[in-house]
Amino acid sequence: MAGIYGDVMGGAGSIETRAHDLLDTLSSRAASSASAICLWDPIQQCHVDIANRDYPDVVIDHLNNWFIDHDPLFDAMRTRDLGALRWRDYPDYSDGYSVNTVFPAGGVRRGSLRAPGDPGQHLRRHHPCQL
């Protein structure tokens, strides 16, 4: 990671502090009513959020669990280098479980999902969306 984002993540402090700093930096450049940075914990064998801005617990729990194993949009994001994904780019996605069950209960409306990193190497993700 290079530039201002690399500077933030390469700075001093815990990974959680740097992740919150990164969300601050990102929010100064792109509006988002909720965003999160999550990592794979190889010891616990699960995803955990290390920085969460305004996602309700039910939504962040869903993103770190069911979403990873079952959601078709996440699967497309994980297996192909597609950049930011928007719900509108996947018309059938509006009929899915996440969109109709979990996201509305948490107040989430249409948004974008991004998994930075190498294709097939899901190490972290940033979920900007609208609440």
SSE inventory with pairings:
Elements: H1 3-9, H2 15-27, E1 35-41, E2 46-53, H3 57-64, H4 66-70, H5 72-79, E3 85-86, H6 97-105, E4 109-113, E5 124-126, E6 129-130
Antiparallel strand pairs: 1-2, 1-5, 3-4, 4-6
Plain-language structure description:
The chain is of the alpha+beta class and 131 residues long. The protein has a single domain (3-130), classed as Beta-Lactamase (2-Layer Sandwich), CATH 3.30.450. It contains 6 helices and 6 strands, in the order ααββαααβαβββ. The protein has a 3-stranded antiparallel beta sheet. The protein has a 3-stranded antiparallel beta sheet with strand order 3-4-6, covered by helices on one side. Residues 110-131 are annotated as: Disordered.
**Which runs of at least 5 residues are low in confidence (pLDDT < 50)?**
115-131
Arithmetic mean pLDDT: 75
Largest sheet: 3 strands, antiparallel
Name the CATH class: Alpha Beta
- Globular, elongated, flat, extended or rod-shaped: what is the shape? globular
Q: Let me know the number of strands.
A: 6
Kindly give the count of domains: 1
CATH second-level architecture: 2-Layer Sandwich
| Total count of helical runs of at least 4 residues | 6
What fold name goes in the CATH topology slot? Beta-Lactamase
Helix content: 25-40%
Oligomer: single chain
Distance between the termini: 29 Å
**Largest sheet, spatial ordering of strands:** 2-1-5
H and E string: HHEEHHHEHEEE
How large, in whole angstroms, is the Cα Rg? 14 Å
Query: What fraction strand?
Result: 15-25%
CATH superfamily: Transcription factor LuxR-like, autoinducer-binding domain
Structural class estimated from helices and strands? alpha+beta
Region (Disordered): 110-131
Biased composition (Basic residues): 122-131
